[in-house]
Design brief:
By secondary structure, the chain is of the alpha/beta class. The protein is 36% helix and 18% strand. The protein contains 9 helices and 8 strands. It has an 8-stranded parallel beta sheet with strand order 1-8-7-6-5-4-3-2. Helix 3 packs parallel to helix 4 and helix 5 runs parallel beside helix 6. The longest helix has 18 residues. It starts with a strand and ends with a helix. This is Ribulose-phosphate 3-epimerase.
C-alpha cells in the first residue's frame, strides 16, 4: 500500500492557513483537526473554515472530528468539502450508520480510537470503513510526545485488516516525526499525520518528502507489507 503523509494544520499559522496549505502541496491530504472543547479540552475550527480551506487548496481535506455528537455534525463536513471525515467511536451513537452516511455523501469514512480504546470490539465494523485512525497521543493538543505502547495496537489492527482482506488505510496521529515514523510504518501504519514535524521545519514541503522517504523505506521491508 502507498505511504501517505498528511500534514496537520493544527501546527500551522492559523492567520495564514491558505499559505500554509500551499506550503505542503506535495502532501497527500491536509489533516484538519476539529475540536469542540467538549469531547476534548480545546477549541479549534469548524465548518466555515473547512469550506474556506477547500476553496483555497487542491490538496484534499482529511477532517478529524474530535467532537461530541458526530452523528449530527459529520455530514456537514462532507458538504463543506472534506474528502475524508473521521469520527471518534467513543463519541458516535451509531458508528455504522454514520460511516454509511459519510460514504453516501461522497467522502471516505474513517473511525478514530483514543489510546485507551481497544480495537478488538470493533473488528466487525472494519468493512464499513475506508480508514481507521489509531491515536498515538491523547487527542486535544498538538506537539505531544508519541506514546510507544500504541505500537502493539497498530500491529494488532494491521493483523485484523489483513485477516479480513480489507483495503483499509491505517492512520496514526500524534507525535509522528522523523524519530517515530519508521516504528509506526513497521507496525503497519500507512497514513501518517504530522504536525510539528512538518510545520515546525524550515521547509515544510521538504519535511513531507523526508518523512515519506523514511516511511516508504521501512514499509518496503515490513513483514506486514510483504505478506499483503
Amino acid at each position: 500500500m502507498a505511504v501517505q503523509i498528511n500534514p496537520s494544520i493544527l501546527s500551522a499559522d492559523f492567520a495564514r492557513l491558505a499559505d500554509e496549505a500551499k506550503a505542503v502541496e506535495g502532501a497527500d491530504w491536509l489533516h484538519v483537526d476539529v475540536m469542540d472543547n467538549h469531547f476534548v479540552p480545546n477549541l479549534t475550527l469548524g465548518v466555515p473554515v473547512v469550506e474556506s480551506l477547500a476553496r483555497a487548496t487542491d490538496t484534499p481535506l482529511d477532517c478529524h472530528l474530535m467532537i461530541e455528537a458526530p452523528d449530527r455534525w459529520a455530514p456537514q463536513y462532507v458538504e463543506a468539502g472534506a474528502g475524508s471525515v473521521t469520527f471518534h467511536v467513543e463519541a458516535a451513537a451509531a458508528p455504522v450508520r454514520l460511516a454509511r452516511e459519510i460514504r453516501a455523501k461522497g467522502a471516505r469514512a474513517s473511525m478514530a480510537l483514543k489510546p485507551a480504546t481497544p480495537i478488538e470490539p470493533y473488528e466487525d465494523l472494519l468493512p464499513e470503513l475506508d480508514m481507521l485512525l489509531i491515536m498515538t497521543v491523547e487527542p486535544g493538543f498538538g506537539g505531544q510526545a508519541f506514546i510507544d505502547i500504541m505500537l502493539p495496537k497498530i500491529r494488532r489492527t494491521r493483523e485484523l485488516i489483513s485477516k479480513h482482506g480489507l483495503e483499509l488505510w491505517l492512520q496514526v496521529d500524534g507525535g509522528v516525526s522523523a524519530s517515530t515514523i519508521e516504528r509506526c510504518a513497521d507496525a503497519g501504519a500507512d497514513v501518517f499525520v504530522a504536525g510539528s514535524a512538518v510545520y515546525g521545519a524550515n521547509d515544510p514541503a521538504e519535511a513531507v518528502r523526508a518523512l515519506r522517504t523514511q516511511a516508504e523505506a521501512t514499509t518496503a521491508k515490513a513483514s506486514w507489507a510483504c505478506d499483503h
